[in-house]
Design goal:
alpha/beta; 2 domains; two-stranded antiparallel ribbon; 12 helices; 10 strands; globular; binds flavin mononucleotide
């Protein structure tokens, strides 16, 4: 396949492939450094981590790679700004913000010469990001993994936005196979961000039975739930997703106010933590809609090998 050159501020990865940040300790140093070592951009998810732990994780990743490392922090996190500054102190190369952004986030990035890339799901937010000084944008559709800013699929959304923006455009949502990546590059995108494919990797920090769920998932096993963050998300159907849909999920027993806003109908943080550990009863397992395309757990090296060897 023909790879476009992705330039984000002063950063140019060998391959225009970003591993999407996956919170609650899924994308940590091991996964991010493996991706960076293959020539992509590896991303540690900072949301819901104590600042000191995030800094340690960034330093650990930096010891494992000379490649490009980013941090993903959800704007909805109460500690957003502290996590952002801590990441810069720890020497991060790039900041990606999910679920919203603030004006001062761009100012902080400019002050420390660290490019800032927001994830957006509308033309309006894409334009505002460009005006505020984003180094690039990720356009993410409703078929993606994680919390969603829209229910519209990535492809129509990308087509609506990409030609109206003059900074690099990275697509996200249901980009899983080498063919999916190639199709995005043929559309003229500058890069892709992928979560689902890297979730089903050897280096993703999730329990083996979560990986098994990923490999076995068929199209109809992925359901859309309303998270207590107040945003929709895709997840593998389990007992707990059924309870959420019926509005019967158990209310949080205690709450550490990790989010700026939360419906407090249930605790998504706890449910995701349990999911990461493979708790099939009380866990929630976020994935993108494209998980049905994955039928084996691969190492990051093998994922990149297949992408590099794909002939369009
Ligand atoms: C389990 C999981 C957790 C995620 N956590 C976050 C997150 O904390 N912040 C964020 O901005 N995006 C998050 N995402 C979204 C990814 O970074 C990426 O943009 C998305 O997965 C791309 O769509 P795809 O899964 O179809 O490849 C998450 C995705 C998954 C699958």
């Amino acid at each position: 396949m023909k790879f476009p050159k992705l330039k984000i501020g002063n950063l140019t990865p060998k391959y225009p492939i970003i591993q999407g940040g996956m919170a609650i300790r899924i994308s940590m140093a091991e996964l991010a450094s493996a991706v960076a070592n293959e020539g992509g951009i590896g991303v540690i998810a900072g949301t819901a981590l104590p600042v000191e732990e995030l800094k340690r994780e960034i330093k650990k990743a930096k010891n494992k790679t000379d490649g490009i490392l980013g941090v993903n922090i959800m704007f909805a996190a109460r500690e957003f700004k502290k996590l952002l500054k801590g990441s810069i102190e720890a020497g991060i190369d790039l900041i990606i913000s999910g679920a919203g952004f603030s004006r001062d986030m761009f100012t902080i990035g400019q002050e420390y010469d660290v490019p800032v890339v927001p994830i957006v799901s509308s033309l309006r937010l894409a334009k505002i990001s460009e005006k505020l000084g984003a180094a690039a944008i990720v356009i993410e559709g409703g078929n993606a993994g994680g919390h969603l800013g829209t229910e519209e699929d990535a492809l129509p959304l990308i087509e609506k936005i990409k030609d109206k923006i003059n900074i690099p455009v990275i697509g996200a949502g249901d980009i899983v196979t080498p063919e999916d990546i190639d199709n995005m590059f043929k559309l003229g995108l500058d890069g892709v961000q992928m979560g689902t494919r890297f979730l089903a990797s050897e280096e993703a920090n999730i329990a083996d039975n979560f990986k098994e769920l990923c490999v076995n998932a068929e199209k109809e096993d992925i359901v859309r739930i309303m998270s207590s963050v107040g945003l929709p998300a895709n997840a593998i159907r389990t007992r707990f997703t059924e309870l959420i849909k019926e509005d019967k999920a158990p209310k949080p027993v205690s709450c550490n106010k990790c989010l700026k806003k939360c419906t407090e109908k249930f605790c998504i943080r706890d449910a995701l933590l349990k999911g990461r550990k493979g708790d099939l009863e009380e866990g929630v397992f976020f994935t993108g809609e494209g998980m049905w395309k994955v039928d084996e757990i691969l190492s990051v090296k093998e994922i990149f090998k297949r992408i590099k060897n794909y002939n369009s």
